[in-house]
Design brief:
The protein is an alpha+beta fold.
């Protein structure tokens, strides 16, 4: 077993001495002795003092302790958890003994640290955004996120020139895309900046060295220029009686590299390589007036670039940032950015106070609100870390992050189930899902997932979505796909059911008009024809009984108590007929005037249609279209009552009723477009309009009055041209 080097031992003891001197009061003598004793036990147990990547455990742990105490807070429980974490990881301690000897709070911290630490360095395969969300969902206590962020910085400081370059890159990317962003959300800007700089250093050393070298080469010149710029501005501001602080700062290397890429230039081409900041020591609204006064003074002294002026004083950023930014041409014709704000605004900008807007009711995830709450506590309370104990993440409201067996990480909403996960992977997998193996155990499709679960979906080719699945899933994708699948299945069943019904009707020589069929469908208790036909396929409808009822209805309707034949009618004296004026009918090739006739409601003939006549008992003639659905039934049963009839001359009726079935897409405004077309057609009136919509399909039954067939034909063509309309048919 490799021992620590002399340099590592010396660094450890010097650091331990420094920690005891500065922060030793945070541990009792007994607690300190206990930690040292446990470290000795680890050594005696034969455990290597190095981790899997060759980093000295004790030294990195101690550096994490120092960093946390210096940059966050020397909190007893947090420091204890940091010190005990390697011992728990190596099995020297267990949670039960830690809870007994160190308390429930330290044990709780360590449990969460272990959960978060399980997924360390998986960012490249799992996706950094999702992995960051997973870490937040696993940590009920925000202190865990802070500890792990500080630990990442301690590791990043140790891995410069580490031989395993691929691992170093993974750690650097994790620092860039996870921990630096967490630090930013928490207002730990110093840690954020160092993580970003080190990440750039380890992933692109040439760029990092080039920028650092150029900054070093120009440091004296830059410092001298800042002093040259500040001098006269300072005097002018003092003459104006303002209380202020003025300073200059160079941007971080990672920030400069970001600007170089964005502006597509080198270091020398960056205008705002450094910034001059004027901080006004006047509070409230008077401070804003003083900022504008300072801005005016700087503008009088130097030429300003109006395009680059930023007024975040009158219109603060969404995160609450307030400042005046001016880019001016200073000495030697160099462009300089000047930031002007009050002391309070500067504290907000530097420490992130204004980020609490989400916490105070703005949009954002529960994790965002949780972290912003934590930021406020960190910035505004003396005993911040103690207060953070109660700032728990909302377990009910946070997202769930689960892995596939291959390591892909997916984000799901709260209360997501195995079935949601299956549909998230692929629609086919979701449709055939029968369950899953979650963390090595068989689970049903309604099993709720937890963050960190590894889920292997089980499928069967004979499995299909069911209506009850809609009560299991919570994701919109799963709901949509299940509904689509159910609709497709219903349509397939309906097509088969319709084929069965029509075949049985043909066998019994019953021709049924659609309007009549719809009447019987509603009578059977079905709202839609698709539901009715699907029920036939499923055997839920007695087709024989229904066809018998329809046949009886058609027969009774056709008879209409007919007692007089067509021949008998023609033999009656003319004077006995009811005189109705000039008739537009030709009966059996002869024009006969004064005949009372009625237009059949089953087919609604209009002037110009090909027609035939059928006599009723009261001496009236019923007019049917030749393609009427009842023509075969009437001609077969009552041939003696049928006469050939044609239209003659002009219609003596003011108008004729016609019914149209219109189908199309359920687009916004389609009804207005249809009614607008009709209203513009002189002589056409709407008598009735019934509209149904189902799953994006528009269906309307429209009854209109028209003069004749030509007007009706023209109206149909106009309606067919309406956007969204797919078909227009007479019914």
């Amino acid at each position: 077993m490799r021992e620590l080097t002399y340099r590592e031992k010396r660094e450890f003891y010097l650091l331990l001495k420094e920690f005891r001197e500065k922060y030793g009061d945070n541990f009792t003598a007994d607690e300190a002795d206990r930690i040292l004793h446990l470290m000795s036990e680890a050594k005696d147990a034969g455990l290597t003092p190095y981790d899997a990547h060759g980093l000295p455990r004790a030294l990195v742990g101690l550096k994490t302790l120092m960093l946390f105490a210096e940059q966050i807070n020397p909190d007893h429980n947090c420091l204890a958890a940091i010190a005990l974490y390697p011992l728990l990881h190596d099995g020297i301690l267990d949670i039960v003994s830690i809870r007994k000897d160190w308390g429930a709070d330290v044990a709780s911290l360590l449990v969460a640290m272990t959960s978060v630490g399980r997924f360390s360095h998986e960012g490249a395969s799992a996706g950094y955004e999702n992995l960051r969300g997973l870490m937040l969902s696993l940590a009920d206590d925000i202190r865990v996120i802070i500890i792990m962020t500080v630990h990442n910085l301690a590791v990043m400081r140790e891995i410069n020139l580490h031989p395993d370059e691929e691992w170093v890159r993974n750690v650097a990317f994790e620092a860039q895309y996870i921990y630096s962003q967490l630090a930013h959300k928490l207002g730990l800007y110093k840690i954020k900046g160092e993580l970003e700089d080190l990440s750039l250093k380890y992933t692109n050393r040439e760029i990092y060295k080039s920028i650092a070298q150029k900054l070093n080469e120009t440091k004296k010149q830059r410092d001298a220029y800042i002093a040259e710029f500040i001098g006269p501005v300072k005097r002018k501001l003092e003459e104006a009686g303002l209380k202020f602080e003025i300073k200059g700062r160079t941007k971080s290397i990672s920030s400069i590299w970001g600007k170089m890429r964005k502006q597509k230039t080198d270091v020398s081409g960056i205008r705002d390589l450094f910034a001059i900041r004027v901080i006004i020591d006047i509070p409230g609204e008077k401070g804003k007036d003083a900022c504008w006064a300072a801005y005016s003074i700087v503008g009088d002294m130097y030429q300003t670039d109006e395009k680059r002026m930023r007024d975040w004083l009158s219109f603060p950023k969404e995160n609450g940032y307030e400042s005046l930014h001016a880019t001016v041409k200073g000495p030697q014709d160099k462009w300089v950015e000047v930031q002007i704000r009050t002391r309070e605004m500067d504290e907000v900008a530097e420490r992130g106070l204004a980020a609490h807007w989400r916490y105070k009711g703005g949009k954002g995830s529960s994790a965002d609100r949780w972290m912003n709450n934590a930021r406020l506590i960190l910035e505004n309370e003396e005993n911040a870390l103690s207060s953070l104990k109660s700032a728990r993440n909302d377990a009910e409201g946070r997202e769930v992050y689960a892995f596939t067996p291959k390591g892909q990480l997916f984000k799901l909403p709260p209360k997501a189930t195995v079935l949601d996960f299956a549909f998230l992977i692929h629609t086919r997998i979701g449709a055939q899902c029968t369950g899953a193996i979650v963390n090595g155990q068989h689970r049903k499709i309604n099993h709720r997932l937890e963050s960190g679960d590894t889920v292997e979906i089980l499928t069967s080719p004979i499995q299909t979505p069911r209506q009850s699945w809609l009560d299991i899933v919570v994701t919109s994708k799963a709901r949509t796909k299940i509904r689509q699948s159910l609709n497709e299945a219903t349509l397939k069943k309906a097509a088969l059911g319709k084929e069965i019904f029509e075949r049985r009707a043909r066998n019994r020589k019953i021709d049924i008009e659609e309007a009549l069929l719809n009447k019987f469908i509603r009578k059977e208790g079905y709202k839609q024809a698709t539901e009715f036909f699907a029920a036939i396929e499923e055997g839920k409808v007695d087709v024989s009984r229904l066809l018998t009822a329809i046949g009886d209805y058609l027969e009774s309707s056709a008879q209409e108590t007919v007692k007089v034949s067509a021949g008998e009618y023609r033999m009656q004296p003319q004077e006995e007929q009811v005189e109705t004026g000039s008739s537009p009918l030709v009966i059996d090739g002869k024009s006969i005037s004064g005949i009372e006739y009625r237009l059949s409601k089953c087919c609604n003939p209009v002037f110009g249609d090909e027609i035939f006549g059928f006599f009723s008992a009261d001496g009236a003639l019923k007019i049917h279209k030749k393609n009427c659905p009842n023509v075969r039934h009437i001609a077969a049963r009552y041939p003696e009552r049928v006469v050939d009839v044609e239209w003659s001359g002009k219609s003596d009726a003011a108008s004729y009723l016609a019914s149209l079935r219109i189908t199309g897409s359920d687009d916004l405004g389609i009804i207005n477009n249809i009614t607008s077309i009709i209203s513009k057609d002189i002589g056409v009136d709407i008598r009735n309009l019934r509209v149904d919509s189902d799953d994006g399909i528009f269906l309307a039954i429209l009854t209109v009055s028209v003069r004749d067939l030509s007007q009706l034909t023209g109206l149909i063509k106009k309606l067919q041209a309406v956007r969204g309309v797919k078909s227009v048919e007479r019914v």
